[in-house]
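--- STAGE predict ---
source: upstream dedup step, 1 unique chain passed
mode: sequence only
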Amino acid sequence: MYYAEGVRKRVPNGWMAQFEEVMQQQLECSLHAELGKLQSTAKAEEAEVSRKDFEGFKKLFHRFLQVKGPSVEWPKINRPPEDSIQPYDKIKTKGLPDNVADSLNKLVVVKLNGGLGTSMGCKGPKSLISVRNENTFLDLTVQQIEHLNKTYNTDVPLVLMNSFNTDEDTKKILQKYTHHRVKIHTFNQSRYPRINKESLLPVAKDMGMMGENADVWYPPGHGDIYASFHNSGLLDQLIAEGKEYIFVSNIDNLGATVDLAILNHLMSQPNGKRCEFVMEVTDKTRADVKGGTLIQYEGKLRLLEIAQVPKAHVDEFKSVSKFKIFNTNNLWISLAAIKRLQEQNAIDMEIIVNPKTLDGGLNVIQLETAVGAAIKSFDNALGINVPRSRFLPVKTTSDLLLVMSNLYSLDAGSLTMSQKREFPTTPHVKLGSSFTKVQEFLTRFESIPDMLELDHLTVSGDVTFGKHVSLKGTVIIIANHGDRIDIPAGSMLENKIVSGNLRILDH
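--- STAGE serialize ---
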């Protein structure tokens, strides 16, 4: 622990536990006092929300102080039993019942919408970035659910979990969906205070969000969904409307569409054996070695993240042969189970300690949790090994190039791999720093190249693409510092390395 490191050497072992307990109590008292001062500066309309937020933060902080060392003991880790991770094909072979609409009417789609587009050089919520034919992530989500509701004459609502970073901008844009056949609800993640790495006390001086307080708050990871969904009142409202399951996914995962086979599997379980939590996993490739995986631990299915792995075993964790699958963060969770566990304060998630440095150089930490880590708290939890196509995240402009290209076709908000592509894997694309920001990325392509036969693309330096360029096999384009490469319109590059300087000037 941070606060005990300096004193361990000076205090005899017998006193250590007692000493740490006293220190913990003092730290918690100091934290509670500081939170009380902050709370007193809240506006009247914010008081109740911030009180609930701070109650959640106190619980998280208490657990943070109690955790010693890695949260797993490596020798206790086992591979999950065969039946605890089902192949998707086995679930799909059951077929669909006649009453698909009945099942859909018990479903709610939840999208995690707390993130900003800053990593792609965009202001505002990431969900408002255009990804295909001028459609944003949010547009595609609404189109998908509207298509379901029209096709099956159902009422599947969309719920957005916003953060204080995305709420205002998202609500403004929601007005454009008023006449779509989708009910849209929102609720906000908690707002927690960043704490000083040394003193472990909040950096904030008041509840304000502007000026010097702009970067002293944070949304505490998507594991906060259980508490904030419950606190918002929306959980109870949806249960009262007869809803039974939520399908949760990241809004930037374009493969995370409602899957009727998985929904039917959930709904067709006998009552006593109802599966309360399904995690969609998929086969790991070398690109996914850091992704969380499912293990059997102390008799429960559990999510193991790289941050929990003792340093000596990190290479083993990354091994594709030992840990063959990873978590897509597409989750199907029982609403009644969330309510029960939340009321019993029984949802147990490992704490992620995320160190940050503020603009002024102050080192802080933020305490976070991950939604999938709660799997061990639910009954009859299950992993389903789904096709890779259900994991299509857009985290970078390299991903964006793939989903904008002719590798995919768009139908009713859903992207599917083109049938003209002979092999089902997506190409490996690595665009250099000149392409990081979406606006700059777009100016470098007069049109998106034909990539149907591409295996691997690496682009580095000042490179532009003319119209109707075709890329096949392995293509590497490297413009050295000070050079520029313009790929001419209509070019076909197959298994080529292009380097040096190639300028095409208008005349």
